[in-house]
Structure formats: C-alpha cells, structure tokens
C-alpha cells in the first residue's frame, strides 16, 4: 500500500482509507484498505499475487473462477 501511495497509484481519503481510481479504465474507484487499517478481499488478493510473483518468479498466473468474480479480477489485473 505504501509504495502505491508514494507512486500516486493509490490515494487516501479523509477517513484514512486507501483507494484506487480505475474510472479511466471504465471501472469504479475501488477500496483497498479500510480507514481503520483492516484489509478487504482485494487487499488480500493483491498481497497474495505479489508474493507468488516474487517468490516463484512467475511469468504469468492463471486464475480459474466463476463469472461472479469477473469484476474483482478485472480490478486485480489492472492494479
């Protein structure tokens, strides 16, 4: 989160929550971290994906999920 904030990829709202604005990509603003510092589903998936890439030196990663997860993974892929 801190790197994303420092690079201007994420932004912090007045309540301390951390968001990403994906409206330029046809999506919404997405909550990444609650104002009280607790994680959301996306936070956990970002951390897991980052760790997998770092530890395993992957070229790509394929997720097999149901249609109800399409939006979530569109966001994850963009981030």
Automatic annotation (TrEMBL):
<protein>
    <submittedName>
        <fullName>Arginyl-tRNA synthetase</fullName>
        <ecNumber>6.1.1.19</ecNumber>
    </submittedName>
</protein>
<keyword id="KW-0436">Ligase</keyword>
<dbReference type="InterPro" id="IPR014729">
    <property type="entry name" value="Rossmann-like_a/b/a_fold"/>
</dbReference>
<dbReference type="Pfam" id="PF00750">
    <property type="entry name" value="tRNA-synt_1d"/>
</dbReference>
<feature type="domain" description="Arginyl-tRNA synthetase catalytic core">
    <location>
        <begin position="10"/>
        <end position="76"/>
    </location>
</feature>
<dbReference type="GO" id="GO:0004814">
    <property type="term" value="F:arginine-tRNA ligase activity"/>
</dbReference>
<dbReference type="InterPro" id="IPR035684">
    <property type="entry name" value="ArgRS_core"/>
</dbReference>
<keyword id="KW-0030">Aminoacyl-tRNA synthetase</keyword>
